[in-house]
Design brief:
Largest sheet: 6 strands, parallel
Strand content: 5-15%
Structural class: alpha/beta
Helix content: 40-55%
Bound molecules: nicotinamide-adenine-dinucleotide, uridine-5'-diphosphate-glucuronic acid
Number of helices: 18
Shape: globular
Strand order of the largest sheet: 3-2-1-4-5-6
Distance between the termini: 61 Å
């Protein structure tokens, strides 16, 4: 079966870029990306492609080439479902904030709503693709909803988790390490799987398209994120040991990463991993293991999160201790709010927690981030509910010019590894600061020795 019309429900960080790539590589397929969020859709349709709701290097060019040719963004969910042969579900699956599994399990209400809507609307057979990250065995529940509430049409369910990382979404989609497609081991399941293989085969080499059963595919996504986050927590745990033993975590990472069995990637010590998925997916994995009574498995993976929380807290604590045990009324410049460079996404960013800690100590924080606006920064802090919105606005300022953040400040902290921070005129910035001028590098991006020569009192994560 050859796919002619695709619908993707959810125009977020995954749905938007993924469908743009499919549209770009498969000019014969009509791709409709739909969302209930009118503002988001309006932004995807903005004539000025620099105003897309998501910042990703290379994305605006790709959207400009495909939009309104074979790629369409709209809020007409039902119409798009009706017209599609294949429907990707790419809605958010956040950690539950209520009821059973609160704070651990993935909230599947948006997924279920999609399934019920598809069942209600569809009058022809559809292939349903789980693009969202889901707990293992979700496809079973989806199938039951679709089959029991549908109009008698046939639904095949595939799992096709997305492995793109933010900031590199376009190149990850263009040249993926692998595409994973899980399908049911039945004749119609295999045909559906093949239909999706054929879509990706338009640009992905066949040997990189892996097919598995549905449960392996669902579980592989959670496992991949757990392994990646585990590497960050592993190196971060050693960064603390390095600081007390005068070993250098950068050197340790290089030494161990040269072993081809370990490999060099994902060994960068940091102020802690952020992003919408690592924590959410590991908590979900822990919850699933607990639900099956596998306590040791659950405890093992939970430690990755415990270590990450510790890393964020200890960085903030280090700032307070170094500033003579008080930051009350002191101005601290914070460089970077996004959870990593080259994205405007701030979900679970380490910066939120470090700054919250500093504000609790009554510091005056001034934030500069090249891509994140003030509204988002205040929204992130307000969401924590630690203090009133009014207090957050009193204690924290956001500036568009990084130089303003340094004016009469006692300290500066790098919380996101934006490249532009490396080329700041640090001599001038040093002059603007009160002395001693403290600089906390939570991302290991600055030249420690050079900055000490200028006069900064430096702290780099993982260096004693
Ligand atoms: P997102 O919040 O950016 O986007 C989800 C979108 O779905 C929102 O715009 C929301 O309005 C829309 N939506 C929710 N319910 C809807 C409904 N019933 N009908 C229509 N639209 C609806 O989320 P995201 O970052 O794109 O993540 C989506 C999924 O992909 C999650 O499961 C996530 O774990 C997974 N994932 C994310 C990334 C990433 O880098 N962000 C990478 C791989 C996998
Ligand atoms: C991660 C995975 O890399 C993707 O494969 C996956 O698809 C995605 O989660 C998801 O499921 O959402 P992402 O969170 O976008 O992607 O970004 P990463 O590059 O993985 O970085 C995550 C966090 O870890 C960032 O805060 C980053 O700064 C931190 N990190 C990463 C480190 O502190 N050290 C490292 O060596 C690598």
């Amino acid at each position: 079966m050859s796919i002619k019309n695709i619908c993707c429900i959810g125009a977020g960080y995954v749905g938007g870029p993924t469908m743009t790539m499919i549209a770009a590589k498969c000019p014969d397929i009509i791709v409709n990306v739909v969302d209930i969020n009118k503002n988001r859709i309006a932004a995807w349709n903005d004539k000025n492609v620099d105003k897309l709701p998501i910042y990703e290097p290379g994305l605006s060019d790709l959207v400009a080439k495909t939009r309104n040719k074979n790629l369409f963004f709209s809020t007409e969910v039902e119409q798009a479902i009706q017209a599609a042969d294949m429907i990707f579900i790419s809605v958010n699956t956040p950690t539950k904030t209520y009821g059973v599994g609160k704070g651990m399990a993935a909230d599947l209400k948006y997924i279920e709503l999609c399934a019920r809507q598809i069942a209600a609307v569809a009058t022809t057979d559809k292939i349903i693709v789980e693009k969202s990250t889901l707990p293992v065995r979700t496809a079973e529940a989806l199938k039951r909803i679709l089959d029991n509430t549908g109009n008698g049409v046939n639904f095949e369910i595939l799992s096709n988790p997305e492995f793109l990382a933010e900031g590199t979404a376009v190149s990850d989609l263009l040249n993926p390490d692998r595409v994973l497609i899980g399908g049911e081991e039945t004749e119609s399941g295999r045909l559906a799987q093949q239909a999706l293989v054929d879509v990706y085969a338009n640009w992905v080499p066949k040997e990189r398209i892996l097919t598995t059963n549905v449960w392996s595919s669902e579980l592989s996504k959670l496992t991949a994120n757990a392994f990646l986050a585990q590497r960050v927590s592993s190196i971060n745990s050693l960064s603390e040991l390095c600081e007390v033993t005068e070993a250098d975590v950068g050197e340790v990472a290089k030494a161990i990463g040269s072993d081809s069995r370990i490999g060099p990637k994902f060994l960068k010590a940091s102020v802690g991993f952020g992003g919408s998925c690592f924590q959410k997916d590991i908590l979900n994995l822990v919850y699933i293991a607990q639900s099956y009574g596998l306590k040791e498995v659950a405890d093992y993976w939970e430690q990755v999160i415990i270590m990450n929380d510790h890393q964020k807290r200890r960085f903030a604590k280090k700032i307070v201790e170094t500033l003579f045990n008080t930051v009350s009324g002191k101005k601290i410049a914070v460089l970077g709010w996004a959870f990593k460079k080259d994205t405007n996404d701030t979900r679970e960013s380490a910066a939120i927690y470090v700054v919250d800690y500093l504000l609790n100590e009554q510091a005056e924080v001034v934030v500069y981030d090249p891509k994140v606006n003030a509204e988002q920064i205040y929204a992130d802090l307000d969401y924590l509910n630690t203090r009133s919105g009014e207090d957050n606005r009193k204690l924290l300022n956001v500036v568009n010019d990084h130089q303003l953040a340094f004016e009469d400040s006692h300290a500066a902290a790098i919380l996101t590894e934006w490249d532009e921070f490396k080329s700041f005129d640090w001599n001038t910035l040093y002059e603007k600061m009160l002395k001693p001028a403290f600089l906390f590098d939570g991302r290991m991006i600055l030249d420690h020795e050079e900055l000490e020569r200028i006069g900064f009192e430096m702290y780099t994560i993982g260096r004693g």
